[in-house]
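Homework help thread (please don't just give me the answer)

Our assignment gives two proteins as sequence + structure token strings and asks us to describe the second one. The first is just a warm-up. Here they are:
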Amino acid sequence: MEISHWLRPDQLDNNLAGVLADELFAPGWLSGVEVFERVFTEVVQSVIDDPLRAWTTFYDNTLARVRECWSAPAGCAPHSSIADFAPLYRRVLRLVPPGRVLDLGSCFGFLPLLFAERGEHSVIASDLAPGSMRLLETVAATRGHRMPTLVCDAAQVPLPDGAVDTVTAMHLLEHLEPARGNAVLAEALRLARRRVIIAVPYEDEPNAAFGHVRTFTSAELQHLGDSAGHPCEVTDHHGGWLDIRKDG
């Protein structure tokens, strides 16, 4: 299949994810997470001839639009990828106290970059995809940040017990079968000295285009939190949140 588009550099941002999902994957023209990632990459790199400039433009535009959504939520395109994630980023930035943070399943790493720009956190990004982590390190450097990254399974992070103050996992567990999700939670609890903060979407059916394999309810999140053996709180804010406090 040949894919044509009319994206300009000023339109290159993470809303592309929603456009591809709605126009190509939801109707069934394309399917599969690997296909989604390949098409996404090819579209980004086709907008600007220089790959690094294409990706830095993608990051710059996305982070600028996240901030636009914060300052004027009504002006954000409804149901877009950026509009969906902007309130999540804002909330987790408020919840996480200053200190060392490990972000699990960072993907493009927008959240670690936002942490780095605040200057109150020493942040480590992690993901299974080596290319994503290399790209994040490069883009972070162009923005004046040193961004340590780990290429690893979120259930097997090569760091010692209590290595960080807070572990975050934003929209990660819906990509994992329950047993794997439980293993990731156990690993997060091993690594965090103070808090583990998890966010998941509420969906009627898992969104296969984004690699989702399970759904959550607030009751299921509460059960997950209760199994951790520490004080926890489940709240709803553009999806479900589980905040586990190891420090009481």
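The one we have to describe:
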Amino acid sequence: MRPSDADILIGALTIHGEARGCTQPGRTAIAHCIINRAKARKWWGKGTAGYADHTIAAVCLKPWQFSCWNPNDPNQILLKTLQEQYRAAIQKPTCRAALKALIDALDGYEPDQTGGATHYLTTNLHKSARCPAWAKGNNNFVEIGSHRFFSGIA
């Protein structure tokens, strides 16, 4: 997979928004999940306005797939500001850590510890009444930090 500049920027911002409080292995696991989605060539990578299908950017910006980009999520405003001011954003240690996680995953420096996961959620959400239908009762996951990673989700 040869990512574009937009893929790198959107991918790193997504990791920043989704895993800002995580350890580096947690960020890298989310990076692999994003990459696995792009490689899977499923519906979640198609039809994102302004981006080629099955790219990192298309997968990340597909509506309602990564909560940090949802209109009702407070992270969305932060990420859009960082996207517009990327030179300032890269000075933030958490943004650099997110970028490193994505590059290390893309380049194979950090192997995929998620088992090929295309979906994840927090451990707390998985245990809660708000758990999404696709994860309810699904105990086939890999736990990395505060997230659970699932493969084989349609």
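TA reply:
I won't write it for you, but here's a hint about the kind of observation we're looking for: The longest strand covers residues 119-122.
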